Amino acid sequence: MNAVRYATTHAVNAGKHKVVVVGAGSGGLSVANQLYNSFKANGKELQKGDVAVIDAAKVHHFQPGWTLVGAGLKAKQDFMRPTEELIPQHLTHIPSNVATFSPSSNSLTLEGGETVKYDYLIVAAGLQINYGKVKGLTEALARPLESRISTIYSYDTCDATWDLIESTRVGQKALFTQPFGPVKCAGAPQKMAYMAHDRFKRTGRFPGVGVEFVTGLPVMFGVPHYSEALDKLRRDKGIEADFAKDLIEVRSEGQGEGKRVAVFKDLKEEGKTIEKEFDMMHVTPPMGPLEFIKKSPLADAAGWVDVSASSLQHTKFPNVFSLGDCSSLPTSKTAAAITAQTPVLVENLSKLMETGRVGEAVYDGYSSCPLFTGYGSVSPPSLLSREQGADQTSRRAQLMLAEFGYGGKPLETFGIVADQRVPRRPFYHLAKDVFPYAYFRHMVKGEWFGPKGLVPPVFPA
Length: 461
Ligand SMILES: Cc1cc2nc3c(=O)[nH]c(=O)nc-3n(C[C@H](O)[C@H](O)[C@H](O)COP(=O)(O)OP(=O)(O)OC[C@H]3O[C@@H](n4cnc5c(N)ncnc54)[C@H](O)[C@@H]3O)c2cc1C
Fold this sequence. Notes:
By secondary structure, the chain is of the alpha/beta class.
């Protein structure tokens, strides 16, 4: 084995760890901490260095917060923390990136060339945003205020979305796109359309500003239970929609009043493209698996980490597990899904570590998407100054809380007391105020167990 020289900031059992977690994002932090906590609760405390978390990122972001930033409700700095602060001393942090996996020799290689060996591996490295798949997009996002194109899918440009909304004038056109294929939080693209529409309306710019949602999907949302309700909602609001159109190019000629064009591939008619002019555009870029996973023996044909949809154990390498955006789990890629995946993974892996047989916990595909549909009363000064009145705005604060499992089956936490297809104010405050707090207070510490929150699920013995 190579000598390991990685610059860890915490205690090291150098080069070999019982459990190695790749990625210190929502999934990696949640699972590493919950695994440690679970052993401790069972009186079998893991030692310093037993669990290592590998990630070179210096900053950890609460990505769902970027929707609030794009809507002008929060500052983007509110949702970032130094990665180092979120990794407790009893875990080893390896501040590097993984370059390759060698699961047949229970090892991986870091970008610096060092080898790390493990008994068990958890892959939680997220996904890749493929800006380059839309011609002109990378360049446009580098100067969002001139190109008038932004995205909440990047820390760098999420706040520019709000600037574009604020500077769009009556007589202009606002486009909101969603690509064909998997994206993080599949509801976020249309959330931005609803929030922009509400903002335009409150400031006397709607219907003067035309609002259109253009999606690669044939429907508003991949889960039929909510899709119809969302389609009715957007029609009632007067938001136009165009389906099965995939953004392939953006052209932004000059600055100021220059002509701006978005080119879409018509997915219903081979070879046909459609052009739409715009004055501001919120783009949801195409996404896909990370290259280093795609080319590894861990990947399925599409490039995701190939795990069992129920146990989260790898289909070929029994000591490997995965969760979150990088996994092949056939559900919507969200942090909410990770809260439900984590206890299942921890249970199944702990049993494997202790008895040699994987546990029997089953993941039902739970995921959730909080769809903001209008503003609340608590707004930044820039927003409040233009409001008609706080009372009126607070009554209109709304959010549709979509919760579902595999096959689009509704798994609604509040379904007994309320139809969750109806946007409601309490849901708005859950997503805007409670979730961001609970994320840093509980989830990344491994203390959040899916829809039941702080109450851990009980699995068969
Ligand atoms: C705009 C937006 C809105 C969203 N809205 C919601 C919402 O309302 N509700 C919800 O539940 N979810 C939402 N999500 C989705 C949610 O944020 C993600 O699903 C979640 O963060 C995925 O967690 P993850 O751990 O799989 O990946 P990430 O959190 O992305 O973490 C992956 C980590 O892996 C690291 N990594 C990458 N490559 C390597 C490598 N080679 N070696 C080591 N480490 C590596 C990265 O640095 C990163 O820290 C939203 C996301 C976005 C962007």
